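Progress against Task 2.4 (sequence-to-structure conversion) is shown through the following example record, which the project officer requested during the mid-term review.
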Amino acid sequence: MSHDAPILIVGAGQAGATAAAALRAFGHTGRIVMVGNERPLPYERPPLSKAVLSDAAMDERIGIHPAGFHGERSIELRLGTEVTSIDAARSIAHCSDGEALAFSRCLLATGGKARTLPGLAEGTPRVHAIRTLADAQALREAMRQHASMVVLGAGFLGLEIASTARGMGLEVTVLESAERVLPRAVPPVFSDWLGQRVRHAGIELRLGVRPASITPHADGVAIALEDGRQLNAPLLVAAIGLVPEVALARASGLELHPANGGIRIDAQCRTSAAHIFAAGDCTSQFQPLFGEEIRLESWQSANEQARISAAAMLGVATESAATPWFWTDQFGCNVQMLGMPAAGLAYRLRGPQATDDMAPKFLLLGFDGESRLCHAIAVNAGGDLRQLRALVEQRTSCDAALLRDTSIPLRQAVRDTIAAAAAPSLS
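Structure tokens generated for the chain above:
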């Protein structure tokens, strides 16, 4: 390995593009080569299931960085190209265009791919998934040609697609195998509220149902359910999760997590191979907040790991990763979440939780033993959530009644909580 060789970034998505920018921000002046298998400039994925799906004009507005950014910073883009193999011992990457590229350090930011339905080939007519801009464009065109659709999966992506489609006037049915929406991301009390709101929007939400078979035909898709019922729809969207893209890492001999399948990385995003780092949806990392190694599929996690890996590649200090934060826009609500749900948390409501309110605003606060705030969900209250960050990150002892009392401004309640925790004990 020569330090005169470029830093290679494999993947031109959120993590890869953010890491390239961070390398320059941290003062790196050497070559940076970013290889991506899509042809568009690096773009944001969250809008694909929302604004892009309903408005073709958004295709040109979702770039991670403005036009000219990469040229101004001498970041070499190799788009529409794949890294087909990596010789980790010799620090050489082989590309689909025939180039053998020596690198000094390498970042794998290969992301993931949409999980496919068993027995259906990719590209099956009338069956769609969203992971790329091309996916969203194809679904957008199909939605303009049909009056109804079925969405398989009531996770973040499935509900966002359903919300967008309903806003465009389509009749929508959502099928979810679990007994509630967002089953892995939010507590039951919030699932119940959101499920009611989904139905209030005019969407047919069927929970606890599984497809026994899915059969495309000339006029659409026939979906036979395990309970014997059958649906027919002109359009089916599968929003059933993401599979980490780790084929290159596996072939390169990197260690993968045996359960979640992600590329195992340490706190500085180093893989099991010297000089190779990884960031984004393809990774598996120990999360102190949860006490276990997990894959975090989120915009924030991709950005945080990109920053940390860039700093580690250059040997410069940077802040540790922030507390996990997620957001989604659906059914007239901006929902933001800080931390993650855990068994045994007691949830308390701050503000009115009306299902049919056009613009509800409330907080759902998850306490560990009524004393520590571990998880918070904000509906149309992102500013309030930011005020709670210090309590979650510092695991501050809290008075739940104080924080949920709407007669006291939240800023004051947080300030009083922090002051009380800092005061010396008299016992």
